[in-house]
TrEMBL record:
SUPFAM superfamilies per UniProt: SIS domain
GO MF annotations, alphabetized: carbohydrate derivative binding; hydrolase activity; isomerase activity
Domain SIS residues, every copy: 48-204, 223-371
Record lineage: Bacteria, Bacillati, Bacillota, Bacilli, Lactobacillales
Pfam families (UniProt xref): SIS (PF01380)
Keywords: Hydrolase, Isomerase, Repeat
GO cellular component: plasma membrane
Organism: Tetragenococcus osmophilus
Protein name: Tagatose-6-phosphate ketose
Length: 391
């Protein structure tokens, strides 16, 4: 797909999605530049929140719907280990949960920073989540990380004093149905903001994942070899932040194939507790391998176990070369100068999952740019009724 001409991709109904997957390494470098420019203003805003906070720690609630929720799911494990945990408690809650059951997730007396992730900023749940948080919480602040400067959330931030907006690169506002660059750029933006690792090291992480992303593009043929196998099901596994990433990886398959390929996601250890029964001889199993040496053991153990079962159509380890590696098939990045922590490794890994999804979409004769021609699902969700909330 990455070597086809624009005309060839248009005929396949895949020009937009292919382009938007392929441009991500460039967008990550742009995201770093945007953060550098806004760094002082962001830090000043966070200092205001800290100064006005009541209680021991500030709740940082990452929220969004669908892929935008999975940004938070990917971030929280990494930030629990690498964020400022003396100041913040990090949580990920979908807007769909916040809006449906506010009293179970939002608390009046707890100082809260609601971090809203949104590609368009126009989803009804995203707007309602902000309104409900304002109504429920005495000391509420907002950080809006969005891809669309003309979206409702972005426009609101311009006149709300308790709302700071950070835009992703312009091209991250995906035109395609599936969120690709929007997901990875919003994730990276939040990492740069909340990761307490020194800036020079974070910048080096960004340069590394950009090289790894380019590697995915150059090695598409290896991914195509995986997709050429006979399968009807896909499993994604991982641990830590890469466990959160499995939700987004499996969603890309569901979206781009319009549900023609069945999917399951789970943590590497959790997979044994029932979901493993999903595996048959028509199943591909992918595990995002963590670079934490201790965690990595559990990722590799389940892969070796599934391999010994001799049932799956294909079993693949995705990641960097470490001290211990999978004995079977793997997509191992050549980039070894830095063994990335899982929060950043997730961005290189998701490019592989996105490529798996688009190649699978073509395989099942779907059109990735318009995978749901019936309109069952839409780029910006429709049909949502937001009911009046009474505190």
């Amino acid at each position: 797909m990455f070597t086809l001409t624009k005309e060839e991709l248009i005929r396949k109904g895949a020009e937009i999605t292919t382009r938007e997957i392929k441009q991500q390494p460039e967008l990550w470098e742009e995201t770093l530049e945007i953060y550098q420019t806004a760094k002082k203003d962001i830090e000043d805003y966070l200092e205001v929140i800290k100064k006005n906070a009541s209680g021991n720690r500030i709740r940082v609630v990452f929220t969004g719907a669908g892929t935008s929720q999975y940004v938070g799911d990917t971030l929280v494990p990494y930030l629990n280990a690498n964020g400022d945990n003396s100041t913040y408690i990090f949580q990920s809650v979908g807007t769909t949960d916040l809006v449906a059951s506010p009293s179970e997730y939002l608390f009046e007396e707890e100082s809260t920073l609601l971090v809203s992730f949104a590609r368009s900023g126009n989803s009804p749940e995203s707007i309602a989540a902000v309104d409900i948080a304002n109504a429920m919480i005495k000391n509420i602040y907002h950080l809006t990380i969005t891809c669309a400067s003309d979206g409702t959330l972005a426009q609101r931030s311009e006149y709300e004093p308790n709302n700071f907006m950070l835009l992703t690169p312009k091209r991250a506002n995906d035109d395609g149905f599936a969120m690709t660059g929007s997901f990875s750029c919003m994730t990276l933006s939040a990492l740069l903001i909340f990761d307490t690792t020194e800036f020079t090291k974070k910048a080096n992480y960004v340069h590394t994942i950009s090289h790894m992303g380019q590697e995915v593009i150059k090695r598409e043929a290896e991914i195509q070899d995986m997709i050429d196998r006979d399968f009807e099901r896909i499993v994604y596994l991982g641990s830590g932040s890469l466990s959160g990433l499995t939700r987004e990886a499996q969603l890309k398959i569901l979206e781009l194939t319009a549900g023609k390929i069945a999917t399951v996601f789970d943590s590497s250890m959790g997979f044994r507790h029932g979901p493993k029964s999903f595996v048959n001889n028509q199943t591909l199993v992918f595990d995002f391998i963590n670079n934490n040496q201790y965690t990595r053991e559990y990722d590799l153990d389940i892969l070796e176990e599934v391999k010994e079962d001799e049932i799956a159509a294909g079993i693949f380890a995705i990641g960097q070369i470490g001290e211990r590696n999978f004995s079977g098939d793997q997509f191992s990045f050549y980039e070894r100068t830095t063994l990335l922590p899982d929060g950043y490794l997730a961005l290189a890994d998701i490019m592989i999952a996105q490529t798996v999804a688009i190649l699978t979409s073509i395989k099942v004769n779907n059109t990735p740019d318009t995978p749901s021609p019936s309109g069952t699902v839409n780029r910006v969700v429709k049909g949502v009724t937001i009911h009046e909330f009474k505190k």
